[in-house]
Design goal:
Layout lengths: L2 H29 L2 H4 L1 E8 L5 E5 L12 H12 L6 E6 L5 E4 L8 H14 L7 E4 L34 E8 L6 E5 L6 E4 L2 E2 L4 E7 L3 E11 L3 E6 L3 H16 L7 E3 L7 E7 L3 H11 L2 H16 L5 H11 L24 H12 L4 H5 L21 E8 L2 E9 L5 E9 L5 H16 L2
Parallel strand pairs: 4-5, 5-13, 8-11, 9-11
Antiparallel strand pairs: 1-2, 1-17, 3-4, 3-14, 6-7, 6-12, 10-11, 15-16, 16-17
Helix pairs in contact: 1-11, 3-6, 3-7, 3-8, 4-5, 6-7, 7-8
């Protein structure tokens, strides 16, 4: 058999196998109960050539949930650079007023502030007068357009602000009281949060937290039953009050006396820089963001990158301009981007656009560096999924009420690298079963 005939035969076998696997995908979708009541969209492309391998409802605009983080974080990573660090800087003037330039560092903690203030004390071992916080790095729009009011106590959705520390969350512990009939709520933070505790001793831990903004934003209602001590994290209602509370605590830890007031203003020109701390590189923060699907991190990073792009105060609007510029060479699908993390119900994308965007990222010289930031099975949101192909997959998941999604790259059994996107919307099925269905489709793609 000559080489040409052999090549033709191999190509024919590959095409037959690909067609068979496409038929299997069709069969899995058509037989699924989800397909009868929900919307399923699938796109699979050759990452290098862009050739369509399989598609189903590929042009329907759907909510991508946290899959969107791949593209908002890529645009920010592309704008700021892998080595970018968030710097929190302290200055002093002749009157011993302390100025702190904030950088919207999503990883900033009380411990970080203590480190900064100990450096301040080394340079200025005298009482501080006023403390002036420069918050000009990003705007103070604390939630995204299209976010749900009843997520106000969701620890996955803390408020976003230039005045951010400890991800704007505090630890709350609840335990049965000594008499066994009632429960006690403890807040270890110096930030005061008011509770209406209506929990009772019961046979299981079934506790809910709710704020009622139409009554007051300062009360958190706790209801349900408690059988054993539990801990949880709650977002703070006032980021400014929380930041100042933690800053005061950090001052005490650093041994700095403070006699003046807290003020908000830009850094003047006639001050002296005396201390600075930096975050880890952006590549590490984006890795955490993507692998753990950290909504707070993604919103802060996106806004800062947007400010860097527009050369103005960071905002979601500026970041969306950056996003659209990054992907301007992709065929438009009338998508809508409302936030960074994908939680907004206003976000819309098609799976065709998603795989086109994945193919664009694949063509980037920095692809190998960026793709390592996506989770693989055994990591983050893929910890317990698709372990049989753990070395063959890099993907981002998404989950919201009635929505499940996953997109990324897969190295197939035949040696191809495919980009893929699966979106499932408007389902009322147990999320575990939805994820199992997604996994069955991905395993079929792997066989292609």
């Amino acid at each position: 058999m000559n080489k040409i005939k052999f090549f033709v035969l191999v190509l024919a076998l590959v095409l037959i196998n690909s067609t068979a696997n496409a038929a299997n995908l069709d069969s899995l979708i058509q037989k699924s109960k989800l397909n009868k009541t929900s919307t399923i969209a699938v796109s699979v492309k050759d990452a290098k050539s862009g050739r369509v391998v399989y598609e189903y409802n590929q042009n329907k605009l759907m909510n991508p949930a946290s899959v969107q983080k791949i593209f908002t974080m890529y645009s920010a990573y592309n704008e700021l650079g892998a080595d970018y660090v968030f710097k929190t800087t302290a200055y002093i003037d002749k009157k011993r007023n302390l100025y702190v330039k904030l950088s919207a560092d999503p990883t900033l903690t009380k411990g970080s502030l203590v480190t900064l203030l100990k450096l301040v004390k080394e340079k200025c071992n005298k009482p501080i007068e006023d403390i002036v916080l420069d918050t000009s790095v990003i705007d103070n729009k604390q939630w995204g357009t299209g976010w749900m009011w009843d997520d106000d106590t969701n620890p996955l959705l803390p408020k976003v602000s230039p005045l951010s520390v400890n991800e704007n969350k505090i630890e709350i512990s609840i335990a049965p009281s000594k008499n066994g009939a009632t429960t006690e709520v403890k807040n270890k933070s110096s930030y005061n949060m008011n509770f209406v505790n209506m929990t009772k001793k019961g046979n299981s831990n079934s506790v809910t937290f709710e704020r009622m903004p139409w009554i007051t934003s300062d009360l958190t209602y706790i209801t349900g039953t408690l059988n054993s001590p539990m801990k949880t994290y709650l977002p703070v209602s006032s980021t400014e009050r929380y930041f100042i509370s933690e800053f005061n605590s950090a001052l005490a830890s650093a041994g700095i006396k403070h006699s003046g007031a807290f003020k908000m203003a830009p850094i003047p020109s006639d001050v002296t820089k005396i201390a600075e701390i930096s975050s880890v590189p952006l590549s590490e923060i984006v890795s955490t963001t993507l692998k753990n699907s950290n909504n707070f991190y993604s919103e802060m990073i996106f806004k800062v990158a947007g400010g860097h792009y527009t050369k103005a105060k960071g905002s979601t609007d500026g970041a969306i301009q950056m996003f659209e510029k990054t992907f301007s060479d992709i065929k438009p699908d009338n998508h809508i981007i409302a936030d960074a993390c994908g939680i907004s119900r206003n976000n819309l994308m098609s799976v065709d656009w998603i795989t086109n965007a994945l193919d664009k990222i694949y063509s980037d010289d920095n692809f190998e560096n960026f793709v390592q930031l996506l989770p693989k099975p055994i990591e983050g949101t893929l910890s317990n999924r698709l372990l049989n192909i753990s070395l063959k997959l890099r993907a981002k998941t998404g989950t919201a009420s009635g929505i499940s999604s996953i997109a990324g790259y897969i190295d197939t059994k035949s040696g191809k690298k495919y980009s893929f996107a699966l979106l499932i919307q408007n389902h009322n099925t147990d999320i575990v079963e939805v994820k199992k269905f997604e996994d069955s489709l991905i395993n079929e793609i792997y066989k292609m």
